[in-house]
Design goal:
By secondary structure, the protein is α+β, with helices and mostly antiparallel strands. It is 45% helix and 14% strand.
Length: 270
């Protein structure tokens, strides 16, 4: 996959790179929600408050653009930026009504319930989809917070969710809290992380303990080292960013996972 965007890459590298940029109907709905909220808040940061209809229109335009790109297979020439839907690629059914309902419900709840609070603390905005990074010793971890603001000395980190609650959200927010603790000099007790489930307008908030941040750093380090062990010449650093040979990556025995895997063409063809 690495280097698959280069003209002289092997066919397998090009294929894996293209598949790595694939999305599916649920991920696309989530991306449209995120992008629409980002668009709205960046306008609001400049003092321009638009309507819910404008927010819906922006989302609809994004959805139509992505749909056209996927149907017309524009990803063949631009896999990084053109949408490639798993369902189109592998000829699966798409529940368009569910997608539309998810997007519109999420944006309605954002505009009706979350936005008033966000606007009221505008002077304390800290992050809005900007890329940040921090070092963990041998590795640099990149991240992008959906939204963060400070109010009465406490940092509030919000992650917009269009799907259902899950453990992954808690782990993701803990990484953001770790960054805030390390680079914005907040103590753990002065940070509150919130997974905002827009579809149902439910919020799960946590004030992490310092022990949780330490465990998060340890987990990140172990995960990076586990992945890095599949690189050639790995001795504790990532100087040689080349994968081991394909025989070092055995197929999963949980074959049920293959049905929804973006990379199924590599193993099974289309």
């Amino acid at each position: 996959m690495w280097g698959g965007w280069q003209s002289n890459a092997t066919p397998l590298s090009k294929l894996c790179y293209r598949l790595s940029k694939m999305t599916n109907q649920y991920m696309l709905a989530g991306s449209i929600v995120h992008n629409s909220i980002e668009w709205y808040l960046k306008l609001a940061r400049m003092g321009h408050l638009t309507t819910l209809d404008d927010l819906h229109e922006a989302a609809t335009n994004n959805a139509r653009r992505a749909w056209r790109q996927s149907l017309k297979k524009q990803w063949k020439n631009n896999p990084k930026n053109a949408c490639n839907l798993f369902e189109h690629y592998y000829d699966r059914e798409i529940d368009t009504e569910r997608m539309q309902a998810t997007i519109m419900d999420c944006l309605h709840n954002f505009y009706t319930y979350a936005l008033p609070m966000i606007i009221s603390c505008k002077d304390g905005w800290k992050a809005l989809e900007e890329f940040q990074s921090f070092d963990t010793g041998n590795y640099t971890i990149a991240l992008s917070m959906d939204f963060a603001y400070e109010l009465d000395g406490r940092l509030h980190i919000i992650d917009w969710k269009s799907g259902k609650p899950g453990e992954a959200a808690t782990k993701q927010l803990m990484v953001y809290a770790l960054y805030a603790s390390s680079y914005w000099d907040y103590t753990a007790e002065d940070i509150q992380t919130s997974a905002y489930y827009l579809r149902t307008n439910d919020v799960e908030s946590v004030i992490p303990a310092q022990k949780s941040l330490d465990e998060c750093l340890e987990r990140i380090t172990k995960q990076v080292e586990t992945m890095a062990a599949y690189l050639r010449g790995y001795t504790g650093g990532l100087e040689l960013n080349e994968p081991l040979t394909p025989d070092k990556f055995p197929r999963t025995e949980d074959v049920w996972k293959c049905d929804g895997c973006f990379y199924r063409e590599v193993c099974h063809g289309k």
